[in-house]
Amino acid sequence: MHPEGPGPMDELDRELETLQHKAMSDGSDEDLLTDVGFMFDDCLEKVTCEFTYGTSSSGAPRVSVMLSYVQDNPGFVQSGHYVWPAAPALCEYMVSNFESLPRGNVLELGAGCGLAGLVFAQLDPASRIIFTDHDPGVLKTIEHNVTMQTHRAQATCHTQSLRWGPEGANEIEAIERVQSGQRATDLIVGTDVIYAREIVSLLFWTIDQLLASSGLFLMCSSFCYDDETEAEIDVMCTQYKLSRRIISCALPTGTRIQVFTRQ
Fold it and tell me: Mind telling me which Pfam families this protein's record contains (predicted)?
């Protein structure tokens, strides 16, 4: 009886060790994350499931999204292929409150598998949806998920790599060209996009660059922030003249949805 050969995760561990050594030696942290994203996309098995929202009895529009994603949490290095709890919760909110949401240019930040953007694409086929993420493996998954929605009419969808903060200025220009104007995003959505205090300033710099004067940033989180992170969000709202409102909160066991608008 021959011993089993190395599996995909064994190979992944070896590649991670090599890449981590490379990043420590030359400081290429972003290259490390990009390479790891491709590896997880290649090595982790995905499932395809249907996510449905709205019922005829509730009066809300019915949405049905086919989604390919990693069913188990792949870990901190590559979380974009996993459907975090905030995404389905935000989808429920958008379906139930669709009539009150802006339409037109819609952008999903840190889109992951693209669930929230795909739901809105069915809610308003006349809108334009831009899915953004810094991980090319995630963008590849979103493009695949877009092609699986042939059973429903949906909006025109685009994918765009996007780094938050000033380093993403060129990518923001590319988004503006698609949207035919600066600060033309009517609705920005994000689910579990704040995972550390250090990224708050980068996130809100990006929002300020993209959000239309009458636009809305809708953010859902499935975990509590520490006091420093909450304070940093308030500082950014003051700096960029944004109003912050919590519209639902069931933390720590559920989710919290916040809305940000320009003052």
Answer: Methyltransf_16 (PF10294)
| pLDDT tens, residue order, the chain (263 aa) | 433 444 444 444 454 455 445 444 454 454 544 444 444 555 678 899 999 998 766 667 899 999 999 887 655 555 688 888 899 999 999 999 999 999 999 999 999 999 999 999 999 999 999 999 998 888 999 999 999 998 889 999 999 999 999 999 999 999 999 998 888 999 999 999 998 999 999 999 999 999 999 999 999 999 999 999 999 999 999 999 999 999 999 999 999 999 999 99
24 and 139 housed in the same domain: no
CA–CA distance, 185 with 106 (Å, rounded to integer): 6
**pTM beyond 0.90, yes or no:** no
Domain at 133, CATH number: 3.40.50.150
CA gap 171, 174 in Å, rounded: 5
Question: Same domain for 20 and 53?
Answer: no
Q: Are residues 35 and 113 in the same domain?
A: no
CA–CA gap between residue 138 and residue 40 (Å, rounded): 10
35 and 88 inside one domain: no
Half-sphere exposure of 101 (CA within 13 A, CB side): 24
Q: Please state, in angstroms and rounded to a whole number, the distance separating the CA atoms of residues 83 and 117.
A: 13
Q: What residues make up the domain containing 34?
A: 8-39
Angle, nearest 10°, between helix axes 227-239 and 200-210? 30
Instruction: Report the domain count for the chain.
Output: 2
| Residue 37 near residue 136, CB atoms below 8 Å | yes
